[in-house]
Amino acid sequence: MAAKLSWVEEVQGWGNNPGAGADMHAMDTSRGMTALEWARFTGRYETSYLVHKLMSRPCAEQFCEHYKPEWHKMKELLALANETKTCLQKIAECIRSTFTFNYFNDPKEGGVMDHMVRVTTALSSPFISMACKTVCPETPPCVGKRRYSVQEILREQNDQEKRAQEKSSENRKEKSSQDSHSTVASKKKERRSSLQTSGLQVSQRNKVVSSRRASLLPLHLLSRSSVRPGIVIPKVRVTRAPQPTYHPEKMRRRSSVNPDIYLQLPKWRYKELKEERKKAEEEEKKKAEEAEKQKQKQRSSYQKRTFT
């Protein structure tokens, strides 16, 4: 499938029309050769085989809405597996399986691998339906068909939606105009029965106008009522804070308190040994210095005796 799509993309740029799809009959301007002729001329037999394969199935089934993720060979294989076999058939299968060598083979057409690729790349698969959104599922890509860009497709859809909205708005306007004409005609036919009803209507209108004018006023100028009480100014009282009830205890000096209460630095054994070694070395140095001083004194006294 990936090879097919890559070949389609390669062939798409051929031909005089740059916006054309994967047209297999498009010819090169310099040599006048089609894609299949170029593949044969350059000795690429795999690409020519892929071209024939593409022409046999120009449209991918899994990109259509009517595709069902069902393997047509599944029923046949299940029927073969559920068939009862005789002892001779079982022995023959065992011998055949032991003496046959399993070599690496390419996947068969319409086999398990093809079915897996179709199911995973279908529009209804969870891999695609969760990761992306199809713009036009009703027109899948096909060989020789011009592929519109996503921007062009969205532009067309927006234009269609605008047209539909305009039509609906026009229909609504027509209906509203018809309703207004009918109401005007009914009002003309109806007449007021008496002057009292007209007086009541005038008073009601005056009330409505006064309420509208009052609604334009700010809230603090409106009359208070149960429905609209107006702005209630909150009363703020400033009071002093009470005296604090918590009095922290004064810490005593460490000299008057037992030092065992507080945490102390740990005394490591290796540090104690180092200190002991330093002390021993210092004592040895002092002893050596004292011995040298005594020797010098003895030498000086001996020299004095000899000279005298």
TrEMBL record:
It comes from the Eukaryota. Residues 156-178, 274-295 have a biased composition (Basic and acidic residues). Residues 299-308 have a biased composition (Low complexity). Residues 156-212, 274-308 are annotated as: Disordered. It comes from Pleurodeles waltl. Residues 194-209 have a biased composition (Polar residues). This is Uncharacterized protein.
